[in-house]
Amino acid sequence: MSKIISAKELHGKGALLREQDRHELALQYLTRAIVAYQKEGNYEGLVDALKDRVLTWKHYFLLTDDKVYAILALKDSETMLSVAKEYKLKNKFDTAYFRLGEVAMLFEDFPLAIKYYNNSLKFFRGCAAEKGDFRYHLGEAVYRNGQKGEGKKIILQGLGEIIKGSDGTDPFQIHVWESGCHMRLAELLVKDEPEESIKHYKAAKTIAQSDPKLVIRKRQIKELGKKLKIV
Questions:
Q1: What is the DSSP code (8-state) at residue 208?
Q2: Taking the model in full, what pTM does it have?
Q3: Of 125, 157, 180, which residue constitutes the final position of a domain?
């Protein structure tokens, strides 16, 4: 008789597979987790599984540049917010708005992304370091919307929050957030401040190389180096 796998176990497996860059298999587990959470009446878990599926669609879009994946990410992020509102899960509003902000960035709708990111900070309930992650994403949207000085200032503020709030937080998450922030700075500053761009690229690379679990990040940094023509 086969063992019944719980929604939490399915979700954990899907999240791990996503982090390992095994997106197709991750989607299978995450979808099963969503259905299982619904059967359990665990809507907080369901929203969290949708969050991971949004990230999986996002990675597929970045790998293929096929807008269908951005659309799928949009629908899942909209569902996150709808479920959170329907079941009054106020502790999930911040994540839902954050994912909507990420998806708006995929469509290059920077004003909308700024709106969603500001909402995510308004409802934020996580740790201090994660707030820095949310903030640097807001800064990127502001920068890409043409307010470069203000955007850079917000990104650096977010980086400071990540570093300052790192104690007591999962090192893997800190490495993901900190390296991601350095990557964004490297990409945004490459034309106007090339030396600082290289500095942030190297910082991101050093962080990724220090953590064997950062499989996706290592690939992303390698691709960014080619894009920015940094050896």
A1: H
A2: 0.93
A3: 125
